[in-house]
Amino acid sequence: MIRLPALTVLAAFAAFTAAPAFASTPITLDQAMAHPDWIGTPVEAAWWNWDGKQVIYKQKRTGSPVRDIFRVDAGKAGASQVKDAELAKLDSPDVLFNRERTRAIVVRNGDLFERDLKTGALVQVTRGSGATIATPQYSADGRAIQFRAGDDWYQWDRQDRVLAPLAVIRAAKDPAAQDPDALRDLQLRLIATLKRQKDERDATRARAEEERRADPSRAPAPIYLGDKIAIVSSALSPDGRWLLVVTGPKDAPKGRVGKMPRYVTESGYEEFSDERTRVGRNPPQGHGLKLVNLATREVKDLAFDALPGIAVDPLAAMRVAQKLDPLKGNRPAMIGFRGEAITWSQDGTNVAVMLRSVDNKDRWIATVDLPRAALKPVHRLSDEAWVNYDNNEFGWLPDDKTLWYLSEESGYSHLYVRDAGGKTRALTGGKWEASDVAWSADGQTAWLLCNRKTPGAYEVCAVSAKDGATREVSSLDGGVEDFRLSPDQKKLLVHFSGPYLPPQIATLPSHGGAAVKLTDTRTADFKARDWIQPQLVPVPSTHGADPVWAKLYRPEQLEPGKQYPVVMFVHGAGYLQNVSRRYTPYFREQMFHNLLVQKGYVVLDMDYRASKGYGAKWRTAIYRQMGHPELDDYLDGVNWMVANQQGDRAKVGIYGGSYGGFMTLIGMLRAPGVFQAGAALRPVTDWTTYNHEYTANILNTPELDPEAYKVSSPIEYAQNLQGHLLIAHGMVDDNVFFQDSVRMAQRLIELKKDNWELAPYPMERHSFVQPESWYDEYRRIYQLFERTLK
Known about the structure:
Elements: H1 6-17, H2 29-32, E1 43-48, E2 54-60, E3 67-73, E4 80-81, E5 95-97, E6 103-108, E7 111-116, E8 122-124, E9 133-138, E10 144-149, E11 152-157, E12 162-167, E13 169-170, H3 182-190, H4 192-214, E14 223-224, E15 229-236, E16 242-249, E17 259-262, E18 271-274, E19 288-293, E20 298-301, H5 316-321, E21 333-335, E22 342-344, E23 351-357, E24 362-369, E25 374-382, E26 394-396, E27 403-407, E28 414-418, E29 424-426, E30 434-439, E31 445-450, E32 459-464, E33 470-472, E34 480-485, E35 491-498, E36 501-509, E37 516-517, H6 524-528, E38 535-539, E39 548-553, E40 564-570, H7 587-598, E41 602-606, H8 616-620, H9 628-644, E42 647-657, H10 659-670, E43 677-681, H11 692-699, H12 706-712, E44 724-730, H13 738-750, E45 756-761, H14 771-789
Parallel strand pairs: 13-14, 40-41, 40-42, 42-43, 43-44, 44-45
Antiparallel strand pairs: 1-2, 2-3, 3-4, 5-6, 6-7, 7-8, 9-10, 10-11, 11-12, 15-16, 16-19, 17-18, 19-20, 21-23, 22-23, 23-24, 24-25, 26-27, 27-28, 28-29, 30-31, 31-32, 32-33, 34-35, 35-36, 36-37, 38-39, 39-41
């Protein structure tokens, strides 16, 4: 391989960074890595005004962390900033409507309000209570608002304007309860005065409780659940009769935490902070579920025994192989994944609970037989790898009897309904994903995000509850990010984006029609540039039936007979979709790819197996073998570039951050003859050092499955390094610890490896913030590729 002299590389780099900034020329590296405000600040949270005539949104102020609030008419562009004096009149991004959609609950700045949607009147319910307001809801009769603050539930009655506790629960021992004690019994039997005093206390306490229950103006007494548990969350039935309480262990075991040093500090001294524990050192503890009858104050535990498969350990063979004790009884289970995991029907007669096994092999949805205090399983989703922690929405239709939910049971996330008789119907199906469901007030239509045409093209679909008829109602070039229904449900407010268009907002009729684009916040400088539009291409796979979708960056015309050096980009997170028509979270990298193309490279960015948007099989292909299917996909990508894009097989580089950094190391160390250069940014080098929530899904735990960790960790292949390697890492990274790169560096030192370097960034976390750090990192990447691939 020819290696350019250092002065030649630096001279080329100086010319590269000094390129003039006009449309027909490449952007400079300094500009590409500058603060993203130069692109134009995107539209952030956006929501409907109460009357549906205007849209309110937030936008970052250029050159400042401050966010301003704007309003724009729903049918035309042209926004105006909301003045400070008008803030008290606004709603919030998330509102909850009553059954008739005549009133709405608004939570703003930690306080609770109610909006009358007929008159627009806004009534404040709380002010500066100090406790975080959670899970507000309307009572079954619609006359009151209920909400949780801390562990307690409150109700505000609209007619008498009284805010009062509805359910007060305590994870403590009942002070009136006494444990059996033989000595006390002896004293009370022998000493009449002691017995008389106790009887008087008991009579006084009993009478006080009778008076409390008889007097509706008084708050209820606390309900004590015992001092052996901690309260995790709770859910109140809208009719005020029942409370479901999620509990956890009071003193959960804690693993040893990591210590992160900081060397550049205001004090001038080294400082240290406690960070997360490693995988397997703090496994999640199972939850309990209690049902409280608020009328009788009776508390019953809901057993999980009825959940199908809960007593079967899918990892039993591994426990035997590692000579570990078998599990006894049921597998521990937790309530939910993200968001609300308990959902009541609006009338309070039905409730559904989502549970998952701690090993993440099973997800259940169960209803509760309230009189019998028993779970009734209605759906089980099981995966020998792990069930998805996304797309777990569920709830009740307006008839209060029909349950709806998302499930990957077909291999893709789709929408299902289950009627009161137990009959389940799939409303959507096919090789695409349904997510972010919103129902009409009559329960006849569901709106959701869909990617039916290609995996990377997202629109809003409307689905009929009657027959599952599905159609796209938006047409925004596949760039829809999310949506909100207007208060009257006749319009949609949509966040949309494009490859070089940060998120903007538009409105359109909810049953289909032309969209009115309300904003374009890009700067004139950014819009004037001549960007290379990525081509979304399906790369044939030699290891599966489905192609690997990728973004291709190349010149408009390839020079006949010329071979181009190839750069392969690897997105982070693993379970993330980057090959889409939306604005990429890797917008700096996308500009860098423009630079590389202008400098004579071709670039391929792949949604390798484990990426989001392609179904369960694609997601779980990496189970117990991280880095193996993904590398196969990248090798297919290299072959495709050579065969179809005039790529030079002898000049292939690879780079990426986080999971992309991990995959860069995998490529360099497991296919050293393919990749001549690689830049591994903030990489995981050893999965035993990463967190439990992510890693245990894919590799189980190091104690149970040491071989999975061995075959998946790049440090185990360090002896294979042949090409040129750059490792770059923030020293205060609290996601992937800097220690990962330090340990890899020591391993390479001991192996006497050449042509590698470690670039530390003393003040950067996992995602870099400072433009100077971004510039330095990508200067090194560019120089690496120029030095080794040209």
